[in-house]
Amino acid sequence: xxxxxxxxxxxxxxxxxxxxxxxxxxxxxxxxxxxxxxxxxxxxxxxxxxxxxxxxxxxxxxxxxxxxxxxxxxxxxxxxxxxxxxxxxxxxxxxxxxxxxxxxxxxxxxxxxxxxxxxxxxxxxxxxxxxxxxxxxxxxxxxxxxxxxxxxxxxxxxxxxxxxxxxxxxxxxxxxxxxxxxxxxxxxxxxxxxxxxxxxxxxxxxxxxxxxxxxxxxxxxxxxxxxxxxxxxxxxxxxxxxxxxxxxxxxxxxxxxxxxxxxxxxxxxxxxxxxxxxxxxxxxxxxxxxxxxxxxxxxxxxxxxxxxxxxxxxxxxxxxxxxxxxxxxxxxxxxxxxxxxxxxxxxxxxxxxxxxxxxxxxxxxxxxxxxxxxxxxxxxxxxxxxxxxxxxxxxxxxxxxxxxxxxxxxxxxxxxxxxxxxxxxxxxxx
Length: 430
Ligand code: GDP
What we know:
The protein is of the alpha/beta class. The chain folds into three domains: 2-99 and 198-261, Adenylosuccinate Synthetase, subunit A, domain 1 (Adenylosuccinate Synthetase, Chain A, domain 1), CATH 3.40.440; 102-196, Adenylosuccinate Synthetase, subunit A, domain 2 (Orthogonal Bundle), CATH 1.10.300.10; 265-423, Adenylosuccinate Synthetase, subunit A, domain 3 (Adenylosuccinate Synthetase, Chain A, domain 3, Alpha-Beta Complex), CATH 3.90.170.10. The protein is 32% helix and 22% strand. The protein contains twelve helices and 21 strands. The strands form five sheets. It has a ten-stranded mixed sheet with strand order 9-7-5-2-10-1-11-16-20-21, sandwiched between helices. Strand 17 and strand 18 form a beta hairpin. The structure holds guanosine-5'-diphosphate. Guanosine-5'-diphosphate is lined by residues 7, 11-17, 38-41, 43, 293-294, 300, 331-332, 334-335, 413-416, 420.
């Protein structure tokens, strides 16, 4: 059975924690898109970890962790991440890397940095991990698949061609030092040595695993609103964040994804530029940021403060719909326990009209939040294991979210740890 775990919002919903928890009953966990530009924070018996490339299931002995073909594979980064787990006492995970994954090169990071500098005030707020240049190259067919490392003659010839093209941009657009084809080629040969032990025909492996009835998790990065097609373009990421892409980025048939667990945050946070309708500012935002997540809402990759906002029912309902959600995990609910009243954005006012349908970017820029307020529960709900024991105001808040997003909330997360989770029966059918 294949299950996808994806985000409904702008990322940082707590997918890592939910994956880590569901991985307990899984055999295989697959990353299918993105790269080291976003991080998952996981807390378990080994300590606190910020994973960027490895899937969140690496902490179990019984799981195989897979980097699918859809991922931007930064090879030294991956090996460092594996090493850092081993150094902290985590048993060496079983890892497979797709022979069709493409390689994120140091020049992708350079181009990302140069382009953000060139755009200056109009920049995307990229994490400068090379993601946009990487995916541009992939679709321009000047990227390098892992499999290409194993044909040195063809590789050398292609490196020369690609470097020639890159150097034109470096010289005339960015005025930066040029690449040396020989050096790039040598670097690739070193990458081959590093990655060779992990390389596999992942699609075939998953095909056989599905036939054998194995439990497979597809772990998404970022959230629906950062999808390049369906998100807040152009302030999006460069690979699809939707569960549907999980099939492509892992190499399995679309119809195999039977369950889509969409992770929804009980309030909003976002990084980078772009419209954020329910955003709050000043002391109100500072307090939520400070109390948010586990030790504050600061980027797992960059450490920069996240932008904060109230729960946005319009954006989340859209995110939940685009993901093809079968069930929802509602996270960070414990964080809201300090509020007397909890505002929620239930509509967008655009040009004097109120809508509940998430618009395209140029209209989104004009949207003003229509807020409704719910009573807070004013207590700490961490440690509660049974849904019935939650304060009534807290259950009412959950019911209100479910009503707005029209998808069954089956899991409620009330703390950062693996077992800080409450199962919930939903009136909506799964
Ligand atoms: P991801 O990229 O979707 O995996 O999200 P991140 O890991 O970037 O952000 C989630 C943050 O919230 C992490 O610091 C988690 O440890 C923390 N977290 C996850 N679920 C909960 C929760 O229910 N309550 C609290 N307080 N923190 C949580």
